[in-house]
Amino acid sequence: MKEIVLNGKDLTLESLIRITRNGAQVCASLEAMEDVKKSRALVEELVAGGRPMYGINTGFGRFSEVAIPEEDINLLQIKLILADAAGVGAPLPTDVVRGMLVMRANSLLNGFSGVRPVVINTILDMLNRGVHPVVPEKGSVGSSGDLCPLAHMVLPMIGLGEAEYNGVVMEGAEAMAKAKIPLIELKAKEGLALINGTQCMTSVAAHVLADAITLKKTADIVGALTVESLRGIKNAYDPRIQDVRRHSGQREAAENMLRLLEGSEYVTTQGELRMQDSYSLRCIPQIHGASRLAIDYVASVVENEINAVTDNPIVLVDTGDVFSGGNFHGQPVAIAADTLGIALSELGNISERRIAKLIDPALNHGLPAFLVKHGGINCGFMIPQYAAAALVSENKVLAHPASVDSIPTSAGQEDHVSMGTIGARKAAQILENVRMVLGIELMCAAQALDLQEKRKLGAGTEAAYKVIRGAVEFMEEDRVFYKDQKLAAELIADGTLVKAVEEAVGTLR
To answer: CB atoms < 10 A from the CB of 504, how many?
Structure first.
């Protein structure tokens, strides 16, 4: 796998995922490192001159007016890490922690943070040799950056905290020693430069976004299979309808539906069996399309933030200025993360409505109640719909925006915070729930197809049907079902479903 070169400016979401999930090796651009050296030289010059600079020779937050003696400047950075490592909760997933490391190194490589090259090289060594700090998921208010989780990320670099190495969690110093990575002694500004940023919330959001890009295609695939199982009306997906509405997401979803259903003998035309379908079928382009637009917006924010300088203060080599600003504030990512959660929640909402339609004999156009041959002695898909209803109801709670909340910290010095990391973590849970709901719909649609006269499936839906039937067999009578639900969700999570369909019809929008 080709090594990925970081320069602070052009890291893509795709490359980020290659590093965090596929183990791609990373290195720093030589040109970027030259800028890092110049930035560091300016910091050392200004420190030697005794110029007051926030977080370099002053305290932090409310203590910004407290001058730090020259002999304690390095100690200040170490104490900052110790003080901020106050996280709680379960550890963040490994891919998210790797994302934090990648993005922090990438941000520092812009040359506005005043750290030594050894700091960046240590992060890159940790990535390449698989030293992953144990970072508790809770404790950040999203401003001044993700102080708490990023402090936990730094602990192993200075021989503290815990890290996972070769699949085993151990003391941070031990992990670094086994990986043969020297510990670092933090110098002026370096502790602050390592933790004053949005890399935790952005890493969580980026990984949810990467999975959401797959999930939006999955929603179209599963929806199309349901349309077939209910002998839905394909006219609703005609491009002329979408063109007069003008929304790109709607056009994309409708285009996917027609490609997936191409050649299907299950779908009908307007007036053939009925004049209109219910909204959960007819309005798939409009509803899925709206989520697509939201996902596109989130992508623009996340891909920008991956390469952003979110430090404070900012060191400007050209002018010699050190400006204290607010680039650490997570509000852009916070609003995007909340938007992502809402967009994903809606994909789950409409999926659950399609499940409810499939199992209801008053709505499913002649299919057996709860999609089982011998109802009464068998409950069929009655209770899987309960599970889907529970998940989408939970998502409605989780979709409440975190970014509209704020609580003052640091004795009022930090009087507005973003809660962006909470928003991103909520979006991750919503994503997991929606996968499960779509998995249940996928099983229901396949069951419904098997309960009626066999016809030719669409070009894409046939591939989807084969995938689900390769993992979950037809329900002849009630059986323990939770394992099947998990299998269906895994086909969605690992991309198996989308990959099989795209092999049949080409890349979906």
So the answer is: 17
